[in-house]
Design brief:
The structure is a homodimer of 442-residue chains. Chain A has 442 residues and is an alpha+beta fold. Chain A folds into four domains: 111 residues, Beta Polymerase, domain 2 (2-Layer Sandwich); 113 residues, Orthogonal Bundle (Poly(a)-polymerase, middle domain), CATH 1.10.1410.30; 129 residues, Poly(A) polymerase predicted RNA binding domain (Alpha-Beta Plaits, 2-Layer Sandwich); 37 residues, Alpha-Beta Plaits, CATH 3.30.70. The first copy, chain A, is built from 16 helices and 15 strands. At the A-B interface, helix 9, strand 10, strand 12, helix 13 and strand 13 of A face helix 9, strand 10, strand 12, helix 13 and strand 13 of B. Chains A, B: Belongs to the tRNA nucleotidyltransferase/poly(A) polymerase family. Archaeal CCA-adding enzyme subfamily.
């Protein structure tokens, strides 16, 4: 297949039917009409707008949901915005669920379609934004007025990044948001141009979609895409170094040998008992998992905390001279696991305790009093002491609770945690089996 | 015993009898007379002077040797100095051996006393020194004219540093020279004052014996003692950081509990088979020795090369992720051994091969071609490869010859080297057994 054929076939897998699209647009129109009417009846100076990928015609088949923003005057007090916003939203359906991102919004279903109803301020320009959600209508307007014929290219890029495992700006993935994909397509002019440029990206690259460079603020992120509606903001702020470089790699691999698989990678088989045993035997490493119940928090709160635990455990082990080959944090929102592949997990019975520099007399005398067997190594006193933890697992069991762990996860770990090894880890289920296959890769 | 009694008793162990001293002085006078006469007969404008600790009355009982310098006019050509110097020296005895330090000199025995006969230039002041030996007569004059009543204090300091294992500026020890001991006693006014100040020394301390600070050149050494006869020179240049701090430690220990043992430490028993086995079992470490024949070179040439080998082997091991707990270099001038106490000496079957940063495209593509299984870790490509050396000993055997080794030692190692472990190491003899006891200390 030629690249064009591949893109065509990929698109046919992700582009909604015209019929579905029309239904969705009709639903959006209906809701807006209802909301506008009810707002008037409630005496509110508020109107509804359709935003997000369904409004921009860039959504992927099967992911249909409609974001409706309720536009309040900017001078509305915050409490009023929340109170009347939620009240107005609830007029759409009897089955509403209140959710909370930066501020509350309503989730409901209307004519079989998932709807998010989000109250926000209709500020006059993006520099007057009062909360992050106020930015969405600006993003919407920008994309709608610039994307022109490139809606399908945006769909391709979203699916491509999804296939590469780098789609989604939530904190679990730390990848590319939908808006970022749309901007890249607008900036480079086509899906293939994004891929070609992506293959040559370098850390720190700045994409200035709307010539806002003069307003530029330095960002430490690996990729900077200046938000055309808010030049101080980096649209790629959530993108991690790891995902940035994985994207570059995916672009190069696609250019080298384009394939449908890169858009729709085959499902990952969970690694099984025998296979894992065999693999670890061949590698000679020890696989360790610290497991605990997931606290009752959303993914976006959980993942940063899991990464914190991962860092803490790795730090704990390395400080005690054990050696971690690789690590990862996993959760299915029921159980969590920090996975460690160990290179060195047993150590001799002695360790060196490092004392003060010899020429710090007072510290030295105290150290010598405590450790009469101390001797000099270079410029310091040191002493050989019995190693407290000769095994990595004992160390984790004894010291995990002394580590920085993140608030909610700490509570959960304090209640109960386990340390399991090698194929025992698979008792956490198939999703972990998939995660392990990706982490270790045979 | 009071400190004074200890010093008195220590002194009686190291101060030569008056009779011996008189004999020595008489021998020196006799030789000088002979040399001066023979010089005149040979038509040389040369005279002999007695230098060194026997001339300064600071030598230790049992270490009697006499240094006689043959003072040539500074305009004498170097070849003439050597030719006539050696010729004149040989007139003292029929049994002369030619030696070579910075330039040739004669070793002989006269009336039962070891004599060194060293030709040098009698330059008008120390800034005109043509070779290092020319400095000795200046040192001699300085000490003789400043030491006054402190000869015995100098003896005590020499013996004290010897007891602490830090006496001798040769490259094996990298400790305190006799001249340095004398200067310290002159500067501080007594042995006890040196010890008291020594206990408070700090790295980088500058001792300006003769107010030459204005000529001071910055030195990187841990202790700077500006040479009163040559202000650009650090008398303590040969002193290693390790020995400097060991001296400070010894001073503090002496002040805390003065004892004869610190002047005359009990002999070290070589560690024996059983004891070493027991000790290593308790520590859980592996002792490794790389052994080879000593090349036919003097200690001062050998030791820097041995340390180079030690550094190289430790670096080799650490680069391959093995872990060295401590190391040392030993020689009895027949055999040499680099000793390593290992904390980690076996590793799993995989290792991580680190590739280029992902955004270095050309390097990355080459790396991926070579390693199709490469994956991204942070900002780099890496790949898991079979570990070439899973054992430290295999690694040393395979790679020692690729290390930087020092010219002469490299030749010897290239001929043959062994890697032996644990109590096998003791086959190198009792001196190594002593060295091991000091290195490991139970």
């Amino acid at each position: 297949m030629s690249t064009e054929e591949i893109l065509g076939e990929a698109l046919s897998g992700i582009k909604p039917d015209e019929e579905d699209a029309e239904t969705l647009r009709a639903v959006a129109r209906d809701i807006i009409k209802i909301l506008d009417t009810n707002a008037k009846n409630m005496g509110l100076d508020v109107y509804a707008v359709h935003v997000g990928s369904t409004a921009r015609n860039t959504w992927l088949k099967g992911t249909k949901d409609i974001d409706i923003f309720l536009m309040f005057p900017p001078e509305t007090p915050r409490e009023k915005l929340e109170e009347y916003g939620l009240k107005l939203a609830r007029t759409v359906s009897d089955h509403c669920v209140e959710k909370y991102a930066e501020h509350p919004y309503i989730k409901t279903v209307f004519e079989g379609v998932d709807i998010d109803l989000v109250p926000c301020y209709r500020v006059s320009d993006s520099s007057r934004i009062q909360s992050a959600v106020d930015r969405s209508p600006f993003h919407n307007r920008y994309v709608q007025s610039h994307i022109g014929e490139l809606c399908d290219d945006a769909r391709l890029l979203k699916q491509f990044t999804r296939g590469a495992g780098v789609y989604g700006s939530e904190l679990k993935t730390q990848g590319f948001s939908g808006y970022l994909c749309e901007l890249l397509v607008i900036y480079y002019g086509s899906f293939m141009n994004v891929i070609k440029s992506g293959a040559n990206l370098r850390r720190g690259y700045v994409i200035d979609v709307n010539d806002h460079m003069d307003h530029f603020v330095e960002h430490p992120e690996p990729l900077i895409v200046i938000d055309p509606v808010d030049p101080k903001r980096n649209v790629a702020a959530a993108l991690s170094e790891q995902k940035f470089f994985e994207f570059i790699d995916a672009c190069r691999r696609f250019l080298k040998s384009p394939s449908m698989d890169m858009f729709f990678p085959p499902g990952i088989e969970p690694i099984d008992d025998e296979e894992l045993k065999e693999l670890l035997k061949k590698r000679g490493t020890l696989l360790v998992a610290v497991t605990f119940d997931s606290p009752d928090i959303v993914e976006d709160t959980l993942y940063p905390q899991l990464r914190r635990v991962e860092e803490s455990v790795v730090g704990l082990l390395e400080r005690h001279e054990f050696k971690v080959y690789r690590s990862g944090a996993w959760s299915d929102m029921d159980k969590c696991a920090i996975i460690l592949e160990m290179l060195v997990w047993e150590l001799p019975d002695i360790e060196r305790h490092i004392g003060p520099p010899v020429d710090e007399k007072e510290h030295s005398l105290k150290f010598l009093e405590k450790y009469p067997d101390a001797y000099i190594l270079g410029y310091r006193y040191v002493v050989d002491i019995p190693r407290r933890y000769t095994g990595a697992i004992d160390l984790i069991r004894a010291k995990l609770l002394t580590c920085g762990l993140g608030k909610n996860v700490a509570g959960s770990i304090r209640e109960k945690f386990d340390v399991v090894t090698n194929e025992e880890i698979l008792c956490l289920g198939d999703d972990l089996g998939k995660f392990l296959r990706e982490l270790i890769r045979p």
